[in-house]
Design brief:
By secondary structure, this protein is of the alpha/beta class. The protein has two domains: 272 residues, Alpha-Beta Barrel (TIM Barrel), CATH 3.20.20.140; 80 residues, no CATH class. Helices cover 44% and strands 11% of the residues. The protein is built from 18 helices and 14 strands. The strands form four sheets. Strands 1-5-8-9-10 form a five-stranded parallel β-sheet, with helices on one face. Helix 4 packs across helix 18, helix 6 packs across helix 7 and helix 10 runs parallel beside helix 11. The longest helix is centred in the N-terminal third of the chain and has 23 residues. The chain starts with a helix and ends in a 6-residue tail after the last helix. The mean pLDDT is 95. It catalyses: adenosine + H2O + H(+) = inosine + NH4(+). Belongs to the metallo-dependent hydrolases superfamily. Adenosine and AMP deaminases family. ADGF subfamily. Keywords: Hydrolase, Metal-binding, Secreted, Signal. Its EC number is 3.5.4.4.
Length: 444
C-alpha cells in the first residue's frame, strides 16, 4: 500500500512537469476533455495487441485515410489551433490550388505530366503569350500549351495527374524513398517544377490568398511563413523584385484580413537557401535589412533553409550575421538532422546568435547544454512531426524527440512545414499526430 502511494505520487510529480500541466480547465472543458481522452484511448488500444494497428507507429502515408475517418481527427479540425509559425510559401496551399493554377490561360509545359515517383526530370512549366524558347533542365522535350494537353487527355485525367505529381504521398513510402537524400531530391524537384508556375503574378497572388483561406478553414488564425522571394513575372515579361513581391504579400494579406477580421495577422520570414557563396549571402543580408526598413511590421526576421546535412554550416556565416542590425530577428532552422557532431551543431550557433525560435530542433536532444539554454532563454522549438517522418528523420512518432520536449515542458509549437507536399491539412494532421504519437498516452 505504501509502495502504491509512492508510485502514484511519483507519477503525479512527473505529470506535473509536462507541457500544459498548469492549465486549469472549466467544467465544460473537463467534459470535452473526458470525451477526447475516451476517443484517444480507444484508438491507442487497437495497437496494444496488434502494433500494425497503432496509428502513431505507422508512416503517415500508410494511415492517412484512417486518420481522416477518425472522429478525433474531425474534432481536432473543428478546434481553434492558433497560429502556424513554421511553413514555407509555396507548399502551404493544397494541391487543389496547384490544379487551379494549371487552368490559367497561356500556361506551357515541357515534359509529360506523370504520377511516377521516379520521374526525372519533372516537367517544366512557364506562362507566356507565345511558345517559350528557353531550354528545360535536360535540354530535351517540346513546349506544349497545357490547354491543348488537357484537351487531349481530358480535364479530369490532367487534374489527377497534377495532384499525384505534386506530393510525396505514396501508399508504400518505406520502399519508395531509399534514404534521406533520395526523398529530399524528390522534395526539392517539386519546388523547382512548381516555381515557374506559381511565380506568374496572377497565380502568385491567387495561390497566397487561397492558402490563407485554407488556413482559416482549418481553424488557423495566424501565420508566420518563410520564403525565398523568387522573381515573379507577368505575360509582358516584367520581372518583379523582392520588395515588389513582399508588397504583393502585404496587399493580399490586407485584403484577406478585411474580408476575415477574425484572422489575427500574417508575417514573413525571409529565408533563402543555405547553398550559396559568400557574395550571394552578403546580398541576402543587404536585402533583409532593406525589407525590414520598408516593411517593419510585416518582416519578422531571417532564416536559412535547405537540407541541413548537405548545406553550408552556420559557422560559415556567423561573423556576417553578428554584424546585422539587432532589429533583425533570427528564426533559424537548426538540428533538422539525425547526425550528432556534424550539422546538428548549427543548434549551438543558432543559440549564440540569439535566435528567437528554432525550426525543427530535432537533434537538440543530443545537446544537453543546448536544451538548458532553450529553457533558460525561452526559445520556442517549432515542431513539424509529419515533415520529420516523411523526410526520413524518424519512423515511429513515439520516438520523436518532441516526446521528451512535451514531457518536460519545453517551449514548443506544433507547425506543419510543407503540408501540401504530404497531402496534409494546413495544421490539423500535425496536431493529431502530436496528440496521438508525440504526447504520452496519458496526456490530455
Amino acid at each position: 500500500e505504501e509502495f502504491s502511494r509512492q508510485r502514484a505520487e511519483f507519477l503525479v510529480r512527473e505529470q506535473d512537469r509536462g507541457l500544459g500541466s498548469d492549465l486549469v480547465l472549466s467544467a465544460d472543458e473537463q467534459r470535452l476533455n473526458r470525451y477526447v481522452m475516451q476517443l484517444k484511448q480507444q484508438e491507442l488500444a487497437k495497437g496494444v495487441d496488434n502494433p500494425q494497428e497503432l496509428i502513431s507507429g505507422r508512416h503517415f502515408f500508410e494511415i492517412l485515410d484512417r486518420i481522416n475517418g477518425d472522429p478525433l481527427f474531425r474534432l481536432i479540425q473543428k478546434m481553434p489551433k492558433g497560429g502556424i509559425l513554421h511553413a514555407h510559401d509555396t507548399a502551404i496551399g493544397s494541391r487543389e490550388l496547384i490544379v487551379r493554377a494549371t487552368r490559367h490561360d497561356h500556361l506551357w509545359q515541357c515534359g509529360n505530366v506523370t504520377d511516377r515517383l521516379d520521374a526525372d526530370p519533372m516537367p517544366s512549366f512557364k506562362f507566356a503569350r507565345t511558345k517559350p524558347t528557353v531550354a528545360t533542365g535536360d535540354g530535351k522535350g517540346e513546349w506544349c500549351l497545357v490547354a491543348d494537353v488537357r484537351k487531349s487527355i481530358g480535364d479530369e485525367a490532367y487534374d489527377e495527374a497534377i495532384r499525384k505529381m505534386f506530393t510525396l504521398y505514396t501508399p508504400d513510402p518505406l520502399n519508395a524513398y531509399r534514404d534521406i537524400n533520395d526523398v529530399w531530391r524528390r522534395f526539392m524537384a517539386m519546388f523547382i517544377s512548381f516555381e515557374p508556375m506559381v511565380t506568374y503574378r496572377p497565380v502568385w497572388e491567387e495561390y497566397f490568398y487561397g492558402s490563407l483561406e485554407e488556413l482559416l478553414a482549418d481553424n488557423v488564425t495566424y501565420l508566420e511563413f518563410r520564403g525565398l522571394l523568387p522573381p515573379v513575372y507577368d505575360l509582358d515579361d516584367r520581372r518583379y523584385g523582392p520588395e515588389e513581391i513582399v508588397q504583393m504579400y502585404v496587399d493580399q494579406s490586407a485584403k484577406f484580413l478585411r474580408a476575415h477580421p477574425q484572422f489575427l495577422g500574417v508575417k514573413f520570414i525571409y529565408a533563402p537557401l543555405r547553398f550559396c557563396d559568400d557574395a550571394t549571402f552578403d546580398g541576402y543580408l543587404e536585402l533583409v535589412q532593406k525589407l525590414k526598413s520598408r516593411f517593419p511590421t510585416f518582416i519578422a526576421g531571417f532564416d536559412l533553409v535547405g537540407q541541413e546535412d548537405l548545406g553550408r554550416p552556420h559557422t560559415d556565416f556567423n561573423e556576417r550575421l553578428l554584424r546585422l542590425s539587432p532589429e533583425i530577428n533570427f528564426f533559424f532552422h537548426a538540428g533538422e538532422t539525425n547526425w550528432s557532431g556534424r550539422r546538428d551543431e548549427n543548434l549551438i550557433d543558432a543559440i549564440l546568435l540569439g535566435t528567437k525560435r528554432i525550426g525543427h530542433g530535432f537533434a537538440a536532444l543530443k545537446h544537453p547544454a543546448v536544451l538548458e539554454e532553450i529553457k533558460r532563454r525561452n526559445i520556442c522549438i517549432e515542431l513539424n512531426p509529419i515533415s520529420n517522418q516523411v523526410l526520413k528523420l524518424v519512423q515511429d512518432f513515439r520516438n520523436h524527440p518532441a516526446a521528451f520536449y512535451f514531457s518536460d515542458n519545453y517551449p514548443v509549437v506544433v507547425s506543419s512545414d510543407d503540408p501540401s507536399f504530404w497531402s496534409a491539412a494546413p495544421l490539423s494532421h500535425d496536431f493529431y499526430v502530436a496528440f496521438m504519437g508525440l504526447a504520452s498516452a496519458r496526456a490530455d
